């Protein structure tokens, strides 16, 4: 699966998947595994994980480690 991307005016690749798309996928599957989110938005697991970590730093999502896996959710 490859992420939907477009080239910016400077020629760099940019994602067509917004943070809102990712947050909606988290809500839909909450608590959501990274793979579930990736499948929902059409990105790679690695790409979604990078974006989720950015959203975590912005305090838009929270993460809980269960065994060797992480699940993502939004605080109400």
What can you see in these coordinates?
- The protein has 76 residues and is α+β, with helices and mostly antiparallel strands.
- The chain has a single domain, classed as Winged helix-like DNA-binding domain superfamily/Winged helix DNA-binding domain (Arc Repressor Mutant, subunit A), CATH 1.10.10.10.
- It has a three-stranded antiparallel sheet.
- α1 packs across α2.
What key phrases describe this protein's structure?
5 strands; three-stranded antiparallel beta sheet; 76 residues; two-stranded antiparallel sheet; Arc Repressor Mutant, subunit A; alpha+beta; 3 helices
Topology:
Layout: E1 5-7, E2 13-15, H1 19-29, E3 32-33, H2 34-41, H3 45-57, E4 62-66, E5 69-73
Antiparallel strand pairs: 1-2, 3-5, 4-5
| Tally of separate domains | 1
Main β-sheet description? 3 strands, antiparallel
Query: Approximately what portion of the residues adopt beta-strand conformation?
Result: 15-25%
What is Rg?
A: 13 Å
Across the major sheet, the strand order is: 3-5-4
Any idea of the CATH class?
Mainly Alpha
**Which stretches are poorly predicted, pLDDT < 50 over at least 5 residues?**
none
User: What is the number of beta strands?
Assistant: 5
What distance separates the N and C termini? 31 Å
Structural class comes to: alpha+beta
Helical fraction: 40-55%
Tell me the CATH architecture: Orthogonal Bundle
CATH superfamily: Winged helix-like DNA-binding domain superfamily/Winged helix DNA-binding domain
* Shape designation: elongated
Order of helix and strand elements from N to C terminus = EEHEHHEE
């Amino acid at each position: 699966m490859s992420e939907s991307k477009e080239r910016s005016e400077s020629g760099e690749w940019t994602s067509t998947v917004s943070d809102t798309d990712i947050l909606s996928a988290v809500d839909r599957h909450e608590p959501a595994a990274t793979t579930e989110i990736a499948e929902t938005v059409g990105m790679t697991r690695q790409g979604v994980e990078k974006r989720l970590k950015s959203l975590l730093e912005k305090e838009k999502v929270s993460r809980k480690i269960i065994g060797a896996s992480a699940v993502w959710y939004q605080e109400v």
